[in-house]
Amino acid sequence: MRLNSLQERVLALSGIFQAARLVQQLARRGRADVEPFAASVHSIVRIDAADTEAVYGGVRGVALGLQLLHEKLGGGAGGGDLEMAKYVIAMLQLEAALRRRPEVVDAIREGINAIQAQTGALEDEPDGIVPARILERIAELYTRTLSTLTPRIMVTGEQGHLANPQIAASVRAALFAGIRSAVLWRQLGGNRWQLLLSRRRLAAEAASRLETLRLH
Question: Domain span at residue 199?
């Protein structure tokens, strides 16, 4: 199906919301939902994907994000989550900072190309699996590039989890995925005013995509 611009923007925005929830899960409980995490990490290396769906390996790759988008922007009972909203806003702010630093963008692209060349494509891995070596390389690239920008994203959670190197690498990978989605959201014409003025429309489109997934 050929997507229209609203449908594509909703997928990208769902990618941001999904990444924010993954960061929250990792920081608070030391683990994240396996399949959404893998789909989000996969999206980082799909820098030349054919279309928006392909970035996430299909709509199902951002099913968690679509559900969150529907809940948080739709005005329903599941709306309140200030911590997750903080992460979403921070990712959008960091994307804006990234646009002003083309040399960092170049370094990220070079780093992703190197990850693909050195470790092989993530597409070759079984569903739901992100090898530790790839997580470590993505986390190192995040530290070397995105973490140098301001404002820095401050993650709150259980110190025991955040001090664990493997969990910390996973958090950085999830943040990286969120910013990748924020870049896509902007490229597709998304902006902060749409989040303020078109909340119900975005939520309704997310609900529509979820219903389509349920029918297949």
Answer: 5-215
